[in-house]
Amino acid sequence: MQTLEAIAKRKSTRDFDPNRAVPDDVVDTIVKAGCQAPIGGNQRDSLHLTVCRSREILDEINQSTAATMNIEARDFFYGAPAAIFVSAAPKQMAPSVEYANAGLCAKMGIPEGFRPVSAAAIGYSQSGEAQPRELSVSLSVNYI
Q1: 93-to-34, 83, 118 alpha-carbon distances in Å
Q2: How, if at all, do strands 115-122 and 47-52 pair?
Q3: Can you give the pTM of this predicted structure?
Q4: Confidence check: pLDDT of 37 > 90
Q5: In 3D, which of 58, 103, 56, 46 has the Cα closest to residue 84?
Q6: What share of the chain is helix, strand, coil (3-state, %, to 5)?
Q7: In this structure, are residues 59 and 18 in contact, taking their beta carbons and an 8 Å threshold?
Q8: I need a surface site. Which of 14, 26, 60, 137 has the fewest CB within 10 A?
């Protein structure tokens, strides 16, 4: 599959099939692809990835996040059987991105000095594959 074709078929999913595990080789490919993203100053030691396949931990994160946001508990991962968390060493990042709840860092094995700052739920949609769509500019853009 060509890169632009893959991008055109990308789909946001809110109905993951919790009974369909993502194979290890697919997770490894996703992790490898993520590691190719540019990093400011090439400071690779400032980032850490955690692959979480524990439904128990994902449920605890859901409860903790809801409590922190003072909202009713819900599944922020939409039933995904796994999630990949991006953690960053606080000394390397701007204070504006230190919004993640780090309460379960020790349980997830995130090294000391790192905080989760983002996560991606991964899995298979129960509603099937996305249909290809034409690529378009869908965000506000300016050119200078």
Answers
A1: 18, 22, 13
A2: unpaired
A3: 0.69
A4: no
A5: 58
A6: 35, 15, 50
A7: no
A8: 137
